[in-house]
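We store chain and fold; example below:
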Amino acid sequence: MNAESEPGDDHAALIAAIARREDRAAFATLFAYFAPRVKTYLQRRGGDPSQAEELAQEVMLTVWRKAAQYDPTRATAAAWIFAIARNLWIDVLRRSRLSLPPPDPTDEPLQEPLADALLVAGDRSRRLQAALRELRPEQMESLRLAFFADRSHSEIEQLLGVPLGTVKSRLRLAMSRLRAALGDDV
């Protein structure tokens, strides 16, 4: 297979070669075929060209590192690679939403909160702390990394050494338990 491979070629075999023997030629072929397509995909999702280029390289690096996890019975090579790209793009969007813009100096200063608002906030904070203590340790660690350490799902996956699906499952279960414990205060 050459760099000008057609979509019908067996990309799964290339991924298997990377997984089995770290075949650099197979990776080069896969990279030449998918990197430009992933870059275009990311640009269409809203990434600028340099960001899309960087993320496309990160996607392909993930393919190299996780080739052994690819299961051709569950997805085509293209579907697997583009799922990696989609998940990385979602992580980028989450990080960008978490960064707050600098305060506008023309805004009016905030007023001191009223006493009843402080009491409600204190009660809510105590309930949240109690709900957090009730989480399983692995759920709490995933939640801490995602929300307090501002880590992406893929970073959490690497830090904890668990599959990405496990990270997402732990976060979903933790959030579900917090919602149940806090009721209307969520």
Observations:
- Residues 71 and 151 are 27 Å apart (CA to CA).
- Residues 77-98 form the longest helix (22 residues).
- Confidence is low (pLDDT under 50) at residues 1-8.
- The chain has eight helices and no strands.
